[in-house]
Design a protein that fits this description.
The protein is an alpha/beta fold. It is 43% helix and 17% strand. The protein is globular, with a radius of gyration of 20 Å. The N and C termini lie far apart (61 Å).
C-alpha cells in the first residue's frame, strides 16, 4: 500500500505562499493559468547573468577570459522589460562589467562540481525540488552557491536565514551522500558574498520550517479541492509588493494598491548597487 501523494514544492513556491496565498493560487493552481505580466528588465538582467555564469564554467580554462564573458553576455542577452533600445544598449556593458569583475574574484581554474543542477529530496508530505546555481568542492567540502542580481546586496544574515539555501544543502548532502554545510549568496553587481555554515541542528530547523509551511499549504489545498474558490483558502495579502507582482492584473485587491510599476522600474537602484561598466574586456 502506498502512502499519501507527496506535494511537489520548491523554495520559490513556498515563499509565494507565505507572501500571498492569492498569488500562489493564481500561479500554481488556476486553470487555465492566468497570463503573467511581461517580464521585467531586472529579471532579464538576472536571467542573462545567470546564463552567462553557467556557460562560463563550460569553457576550457585558457578561454575563461573577459572577452569570452562579453560574448556570453551578448549571446544570452534578454531585452524584455527595458523602456527602449537605448536603455538596453546602456545596460548590456554594465551587466558585462559586473560579471567580469565578479569572476575576477573567483578561482577560474577550478571546475565546479555542478552548475544549474536540480536537487530534490522527500520531506514530511512533501517532495522538495529546486535548482542550485553552482556547487563547489573546496578542500574536500561541498559548498552551495546561489547567485543574486537584485537591487540590493543580501542582508548580513541572509545566507543564514535563507530557507532555499538550507534545503539545498540538505538535498545535496543526501544526493551526493557527503556532508554539505556551507552555503553562500553571491551578489554579482557588488561582488559581495554572504556565507553561513549550517549545523545539523540549524539544517533540521530549515527542514522543519519547510514542513510547517507545507502543512499549512496542504490544508488550504484540501479546502480548495472541496469548496473551490469559495473556500477562501487563498486570500490576498495586499502590500507594496503588489505593484511588482506578475499576476496583479488578475487580483482585485492587488489592483487597489496601485498601478503596476513599469517594466524598467528598479534599474536605478540596481545600477547604484553595482560597479561601473568594464572599460577593457581584454584585461585579465
Amino acid at each position: 500500500m502506498t502512502g499519501p501523494r507527496l506535494l511537489n514544492v520548491s523554495p520559490s513556491s513556498l515563499g509565494t505562499w507565505l507572501d500571498c496565498p492569492r498569488a500562489y493560487r493564481l500561479r500554481y493552481l488556476d486553470r487555465p493559468r492566468p497570463a503573467p505580466a511581461p517580464q521585467r528588465a531586472v529579471v532579464s538582467i538576472g536571467n542573462t547573468a545567470h546564463a552567462a555564469l553557467s556557460r562560463f564554467w563550460e569553457l576550457d580554462v585558457p578561454d575563461r577570459v573577459p572577452r569570452r564573458v562579453a560574448e556570453l553576455v551578448g549571446a544570452h542577452w534578454q531585452s524584455a522589460g527595458f523602456r527602449d533600445r537605448a536603455q538596453t544598449d546602456h545596460w548590456r556593458p554594465i551587466v558585462t562589467g559586473w560579471v567580469i569583475d565578479y569572476l575576477r574574484g573567483m578561482d577560474r581554474t577550478a571546475d565546479p562540481l555542478a552548475v544549474e543542477r536540480t536537487v530534490a529530496m522527500p520531506a514530511d508530505g512533501l517532495a522538495v525540488q529546486g535548482r542550485v546555481d553552482r556547487l563547489d568542492e573546496r578542500d574536500g567540502e561541498l559548498v552551495v552557491v546561489d547567485y543574486k542580481t537584485g537591487r540590493h546586496p543580501p542582508a548580513p544574515d541572509a545566507a543564514r536565514t535563507s530557507l532555499a539555501l538550507g534545503l539545498y544543502a540538505l538535498a545535496v548532502s543526501r544526493m551526493w551522500r557527503r556532508p554539505c554545510s556551507r552555503v553562500e549568496l553571491h551578489h554579482v553587481p557588488s561582488q559581495t558574498v554572504q556565507a553561513h555554515r549550517h549545523t545539523e541542528t540549524s539544517a533540521a530547523r530549515k527542514l522543519a520550517e519547510a514542513e510547517s509551511i507545507g502543512a499549512e499549504l496542504r490544508e488550504a489545498l484540501a479546502a480548495h479541492a472541496g469548496d473551490g474558490a469559495d473556500a477562501g483558502a487563498f486570500p490576498a495579502r495586499p502590500s507594496a509588493l503588489c505593484r511588482w507582482c506578475a499576476v496583479q492584473q488578475h487580483c482585485a485587491e492587488g489592483l487597489q494598491v496601485g498601478a503596476a510599476h513599469p517594466g524598467w522600474a528598479g534599474l536605478e537602484a540596481l545600477e547604484a548597487s553595482g560597479q561601473s561598466p568594464v572599460e577593457d574586456a581584454s584585461a585579465p
